[in-house]
Amino acid sequence: MAREKKHRSRGRRSPLAAAALIGAGLLLTGGAYAGATAAIASTSDTQTSAQAELTVDDGQKLFTANCATCHGLDMQGTPEGPSLIGVGELSVEFQLATGRMPLQMQGPQAPQKSPQFTEEQIHAMAAYVHSVAPGPEYPQDWVTAGEANPEDASDEVSISHGAELFRINCAMCHNVAAAGGALTEGKYAPALTSTSALHIYAAMVTGPQNMPVFGDMNLSTEDKRDIIAALIFQQQEVQVGGFTLGSLGPVSEGLFIWIFGIGALVALTVWITAKSN
Predict the structure, then answer these.
(1) Contact at 8 Å (CB) between 75 and 85?
(2) What's the angle, vertex CA 130, arms to CA 129 and CA 133, rounded to 5?
(3) Which of 48, 101, 230, 258 measures 20 to 30 Å from 29, CA to CA?
(4) Are 55 and 61 a contacting pair, CB within 8 Å?
């Protein structure tokens, strides 16, 4: 009897072959993705390096494209925006870095939001505006760092003095805990619980929106330094008194007692009455 030959089926493949094929596909896809990511990162680094070299001329181009519509090509202002003559680099940096400018929409007050420009672009525009319309400049490092004036041997940083000055000059709007507060006509004083030292100084010097300008006749540079040191200390201080309730004082505390305290007493009274009946 003739022996039958066994033929291997050509239509089937080993499961290992399928797994190997999938693995090879994943490796190729991963390699392509890694290469593309590296190329994009390299391009981004190159762009960042180029942005770090922005000049006053670059600032002028950015200003013309983004700011001149409201403030005018000559910075004299238009019906849509005020003049920038004399605002200086410090005001420009403050408005752009806090996202208040460019203005999103007309309203009682420009809200703080994420900045539209990079730090290098902001500095370039600030340098351009300052070159055309000089004004308040960036402070010396010791002011925002909360350090003593190196030119005055008798100068000392005083957080307690800064807190006292803040209560006298700022707390009526910003709240004694720097939590902010409401003003008239839909305006408000923003919270200072996360504001940087530079922007605290800029607000005191340039007086944005409803903020008054505190010149050297009102507060010396050392006084401003002490206020900044007090606010930064308050930002970093750990709250040990339980719930802050927004740091709004008697308003939030009274509301909490009225709702939860009296509410609990009423509920207890109802429960006792129901049990007795």
Answers:
(1) yes
(2) 80
(3) 48
(4) no
User: Per residue in 173-205, pLDDT tens?
Assistant: 998 888 888 888 889 999 999 999 999 999 999
* Closest listed residue to residue 224, CA positions, set 154, 136, 146: 146
Nearest to 195 by CA among 160, 227, 162: 227
Over residues 7-62, the pLDDT tens digits come to: 555 555 566 666 677 777 777 877 777 676 666 766 655 454 444 578 999 999 99
Residues contributing to the annotated binding site? 67, 70-71, 170, 173-174
For the annotated binding site for heme c, the residues are 67, 70-71, 170, 173-174
In the chain, the domains with their CATH numbers are: 50-138 (1.10.760.10), 140-239 (1.10.760.10)
Residue keyed to tokens 């004299």: 76
pLDDT of residue 240: 58
C-alpha closest to that of 106 among 195, 186, 17, 200:
186
pTM over 0.85: no
